[in-house]
Design goal:
alpha+beta; elongated; His_kinase_dom; phosphoprotein; single chain; two-component regulatory system; 22 helices
Length: 742
């Protein structure tokens, strides 16, 4: 404290009217003169003076002898101030006991001398932490002079890691608390660290308010420094640690333990460990019987209980130490929430990877099966078309019944083959081997078309609703395949709602950051999210996990192939998107599709296309070279084209086709070749023959078009393809289309 503090001591104040009578007085005036207010009110001021005195008419200070009620006298300084009030002009007189002030000054000088010559460092600061005094011991211990430190922040000579502690201490002292820091560290002028015990106390001014902060430090003994270093290391440890005795009572705790469990360190000391770790008692008992020289035991997994009642998974590691106070058991606590979540995420990603690999393997198998199956179906459809044409040309006679039966048999062959064709298309879609013709379009348009298509097939008890962003981003995909996705999902939803329900189609824009995209195996960027939600029976987890596998179905025999969701998976994957499913028994199912947004302009979608009628050749000199390694299929194609008015050359392999074309003297107008064949592929055959016959048109046919697809899984713009299995009508229409003048 300084003499400035003495000047701020409260003064006795009275106010007198023009007649010299007291009209106001404060409590200090009552205390100073020994009168109550009732006794002072309207009393002449002269009664308080040793002898009557004529006060000056102007403001200023005068020194007079005053007399108390008990007759004692004292010298006082009077400060006069005129005041204009509603009651008239008054004079305010501040009266200071000079003897009391001198005694206070002397007392402050004495206290200052004690502080200045104290053996321990004592530093004072204002409420902002700015240093206001620095005693001789502080200069000696810390190495800084008072001139260098006064006016600087208190944090100047504090270890940087304790900066937060300084802030907390300032806040507590401002509230009137005294803070003891047993293991503080300060930084000397020469850079060395010194371990000290610090007490921070409030300096209270005459008005009773905290006016500053006094820091008194004590240099620690060797044992205290060791203990302080231990506590510093303990509190610097990022793991919660509590020390307990053999009875499980907490004897010490670090700051991380207090933070983790939501307590203050002082609140933890003396509590039972059961408060934090209710299931740790057996482990502590076992550790108390454990030889401290033996290796540390394995960690124990249990639950940690915070002060707010929340629980977290934890692992504790115990180690014992013999101290002068007996056996102390250190309990190190690991909050393993993040680790368990990471393990769960790793398992989920591993399962997702295994599932993706399994589906990819099944897709390759499905593609190969579909290729061979399509060839068989093409043979059946081709010869069925020939039989149908032959039967149509017969004249009804005595065998009319047998003729009608044959026609019905051919019709059944057509229907069965077309059903098989639909199955192979689903297999190819799942295996991402289907021919894709991408366009830029709006999902909302496709949703509207599908809803119109399904309006009469889902049933009156199924309510369908749609919603989409007003500014929905376009996507690039095959709109026909996306229609197939929506139809498959809608049919599945209808089957899951036998008593009716709600089917909701939603399309919204989403922007995925890198972390979100990584969850789905995508890259960050703009996507359109399509979600189809039903209120059906839902699926248990083991069924939902396998929902996208081909041929996996929970429907009764004959009511499902198990290829609907499998084809959805393949179509979306081929469009560089992602599909996932969320389902819960009794709550329904939600299937979400993410498709990359396109920067292109959406094209106008054409109306429904009807199969073109077969076109017979009008120019018999048109020659078609047919190349396919399946003899039966090749034969049926020869018959269909021959009856369609074309001259047909036939080859069973690419090499044979090259030799035949080289020896053939006439023109070859069209090369109709399978894509996948032993030896030369269809593309290689087309390249060789076009080198000599550049005007020759090429039409590829395949039930497995993978060799024709680009790296993006789409068919090239210069490639024309007729997909197996095809009918007589569709083959002749495609041939005529390719041969039509450009």
């Amino acid at each position: 404290m300084t003499e400035h503090g003495v000047q701020e001591m409260p003064s006795a104040i009275v106010a007198i009217d023009p007649d010299g009578r007291i009209t106001q007085a404060n409590s200090s005036a009552e205390d100073l003169f020994g009168y109550s207010w009732d006794e002072l009110s309207l009393r002449p001021l002269d009664d308080l003076l040793r002898e009557p005195t004529e006060l000056p008419d102007v403001s200023g200070d005068i020194e007079l002898a005053c007399r108390r009620k008990d007759g004692s006298e004292f010298r006082a300084e009077l400060s006069l101030t005129p005041m204009d009030t509603p009651e008239g002009q008054l004079v305010s007189i501040a009266i200071r006991d000079l003897g009391q002030r001198n005694r206070a000054v002397e007392r402050m000088r004495w206290l200052s001398a004690i502080v200045e010559h104290a053996h321990s460092p004592i530093v004072s600061a204002d409420l902002d932490g700015t240093i206001t005094s620095w005693n001789t011991a502080a200069e000696r211990v810390y190495g800084w002079t008072a001139d260098a430190m006064i006016g600087r922040p208190i944090s100047t000579f504090v270890e940087p890691v304790h900066a937060e502690l300084v802030t907390e201490t300032l806040a507590k002292v401002r509230e009137g608390e005294t803070v003891h820091i047993p293991d503080g560290q300060i930084v000397r002028a020469d850079g060395r660290r010194v371990a000290v015990s610090v007490s921070a106390s409030p300096i209270v001014g005459p008005n009773g308010r905290v006016a500053g902060i006094a820091y008194a430090a004590r240099d620690l003994s060797a044992s205290e420094r060791a203990e302080a270093k231990f506590r510093w290391l303990l509190n610097a440890t990022p793991l919660p640690i509590v020390g307990v005795d053999v009875n499980g009572r907490i004897r010490m705790a670090n700051t991380e333990a207090a933070r983790t469990f939501g307590y203050l360190v002082d609140d933890l000391v003396g509590e039972q460990l059961d408060t934090l770790l209710p299931d740790a008692r057996d482990a502590v008992t076992a550790e108390s019987r454990h030889d401290p020289r033996d290796p540390v035991a394995e960690p124990t997994r249990l639950a940690g209980h915070r002060r707010d009642g929340s629980v977290f998974p934890a692992e504790i590691l115990l180690s014992s130490l013999l101290t002068e106070d007996g056996l102390l058991i250190a309990v190190t606590v690991h909050d393993i929430t993040a680790r368990l979540e990471g393990e769960a995420e790793r398992v989920r990603l591993e399962n997702q990877l295994q599932r993706s690999q399994r589906l990819d393997s099944l897709g390759q198998l499905a593609g190969g099966v579909a290729h061979d199956f399509n060839n068989v179906l093409a043979i059946i459809l081709g010869h069925a078309s020939i039989a149908e044409e032959d039967l149509a040309g017969l004249v009804p006679g005595n065998d009319q019944g047998r003729l009608d039966g044959a026609r019905r048999a051919v019709e059944q062959m057509h229907q069965a083959a077309e059903r098989g064709s639909r199955l192979t298309k689903q297999l190819l879609a799942f295996g991402r081997r289907e021919v894709v013709r991408p366009q830029v379009f709006l999902l909302s348009d496709v949703m509207a078309d599908v809803v119109r298509l399904l309006s009469g097939t889902l049933g009156a008890d199924v309510r369908v609703s749609t919603s989409s962003d007003a500014d929905l981003w376009p996507v690039t995909a095959d709109p026909g395949r996306i229609e197939q996705v929506l139809v498959n999902l809608a049919v599945n939803a209808r089957d899951a709602m036998p008593q009716g329900g709600t089917l909701q189609f939603d399309a919204v824009n989403v922007a995925l950051d890198s972390a979100q995209a990584a969850r789905y195996g995508l890259t960050d960027g703009r996507y359109v999210q399509l979600r189809v939600t039903d209120t059906g029976t839902g699926m248990p987890p083991e069924v939902a996990e396998r929902a996208f596998e081909p041929f996996y179905t929970t429907k009764p025999d004959g009511q499902g192939t198990g290829l609907g969701l499998a084809s959805v998976y393949g179509i979306v994957s081929q469009a560089a998107g992602h599909v996932y499913l969320r389902s819960r028994p009794g709550w329904g199912t939600s299937v979400t599709v993410l498709l990359p947004a396109s920067s292109g302009e959406p094209s106008v979608r054409p109306g429904a296309q009807h199969p073109a009628a077969p076109v017979e050749a009008t120019e018999p000199e048109r020659t078609v070279l047919v190349v396919d390694d399946e003899p039966d299929l090749r034969k049926s194609i020869e018959i269909i084209l021959g009856r369609g008015g074309y001259a047909v050359l036939s080859a069973g392999s690419g090499d044979e086709a090259a030799q035949l074309a080289s020896a053939y003297p006439g023109s070859i107008d069209l090369l109709l070749t399978d894509v996948t064949m032993p030896g030369l592929s269809g593309q290689e055959v087309a390249r060789r023959l076009r080198a000599d016959r550049p005007s020759m048109r090429v039409l590829f046919m395949s039930g497995f078009a993978q060799p024709l697809l680009t790296s993006k899984g789409t068919i090239g713009p210069d490639v024309t393809l007729v997909e197996k299995p095809f009918t007589r009508r569709s083959l002749l229409a495609k041939v005529a289309e390719v041969l039509a003048p450009a």
